[in-house]
Design brief:
Structural class: alpha/beta
Low-confidence stretches: 1-35
Largest sheet: 7 strands, mixed
Distance between the termini: 56 Å
Strand order of the largest sheet: 4-5-6-7-8-10-9
Number of domains: 2
Helix content: 25-40%
Length: 366
């Protein structure tokens, strides 16, 4: 049964940089004849300056997967993010290893403690290791949907983000893990899109759960682009867990699919085609920059793999895969991505990987 999404709250704060004292003084020096008119223009200019001000955000995910990452790597990463002035952070799912790691309540509490030590507002979208894979015997043999509902209780029980300075978000009805917020002139949204075939394969596939959630995700996706257009947003960023596969190029890390039809070609159940078709339609219609952030396959990259039905690359779309676990090498890949958001710039997003000095393994920090 398809669930209807509703919005329970409006977007969060948008001003991140105050005007300088000289700028305030300049606004105060007005001629008496045009005082009211100039005052209104001054307010508009100040509002526009704030909306167009650059800011930075932090992206991470697929962590922690080991004791070393829990006790050393992630605390180092959080300290590194806290040392920089970030507007917010987002973890794109997978709070633990996929097997031989219990999906108990202690996992969620430990993760909540991590998020709430982040000074900036902290966002999170669930990963398959957090719930769809929890029915594996080595993870405790939990009911996966019960685990997702438990995550909703722990992380998503209010319309606010996590972190030391939470902000209010828009929340989808029933699928309360799906969130949306606007900072300046950019709209952001999380979507519960999962690895392990989006819950259509692995230990206990659930096609009914998949169908309902997939419909809700597509509805939230379309609503997000409609909201972005209404607000005059210059860009959209979407964050989910799964690497859905985009073409035939990466058989070791993602589903293989025909890049024109977006049909999966590797024989596994396809939990992504309908979502990708809807995404492609929205990206083309929006015309402005769209960034799609995911984890899942643990291979940091920034590229443009999305094609239209004629085989032409979508120039306004960028796929970003965050750093992910490499448990065999301890804290080797426990790093994060800093994104500078500049609404005035044509491309809006610029990316700078942050290699946490205390987590370096192969080459020591200089």
């Amino acid at each position: 049964m398809t669930q209807q999404s509703t919005t329970t709250s409006l977007a969060c704060r948008s001003g991140w940089r105050a005007l300088s004292i000289p700028a305030l003084l300049a606004l105060a020096i007005i001629s008496p004849a045009h005082a009211g008119e100039d005052r209104d223009h001054g307010r508009d200019d100040a509002r526009n300056n704030r909306a167009n001000s650059a800011y930075a955000i932090g992206l991470w995910g697929d962590l922690p997967y080991s004791a070393a990452q829990e006790t050393v790597g992630v605390p180092n990463l959080i300290a590194d993010m806290n040392a920089q002035r970030l507007a917010f952070t987002v973890h794109d799912g997978d709070l633990k290893a996929g097997s031989n790691s219990p999906c108990d309540d202690a996992l969620y509490q430990r993760s909540l403690d991590y998020f709430n030590t982040l000074e900036a507002p902290a966002m999170f979208t669930p990963g398959d290791n957090d719930w769809t894979d929890c029915d594996r015997a080595s993870n405790g043999g939990f009911n996966s949907l019960e685990r997702l509902n438990r995550e909703r209780d722990v992380f998503f029980s209010t319309p606010y983000s996590l972190g030391e300075r939470p902000i209010r978000q828009e929340v989808q009805n029933i699928y309360v893990e799906n969130r949306r917020w606007t900072i300046g002139r950019v709209t952001y949204a999380t979507l519960n899109v999962q690895g392990s075939c989006n819950n259509l394969c692995d230990t206990a596939p659930d096609p009914i759960e998949y169908a309902d959630r997939n419909a809700a995700n597509i509805e939230w996706l379309k609503e997000t682009f409609a909201v972005a257009a209404k607000r005059g947003s210059v860009a959209v960023m979407l964050i989910s867990q799964a690497n859905p596969g985009w073409d035939q190029s990466d058989p070791t890390r993602a589903p293989l699919r025909d890049p024109r039809t977006l049909a999966q070609t590797d024989g596994f159940p396809d939990g992504f085609q309908a979502f990708l078709l809807a995404l492609r339609e929205e990206v083309i219609a929006f015309e402005k920059p769209v960034a799609y952030i995911h984890g899942d396959s643990h291979y940091f990259r920034i590229d443009k793999p999305f094609l239209n039905a004629a085989g032409q690359r979508l120039e306004n779309f960028t796929r970003v895969e965050t750093f992910g676990n490499n448990a065999a090498n301890g804290t080797n890949d426990v790093n994060w991505l800093k994104v500078t958001v500049t609404p005035r710039d044509r491309e809006v997003f610029s990316y700078q990987p942050q290699i946490v000095p205390g987590n370096r393994v192969a080459v020591p920090a200089p």
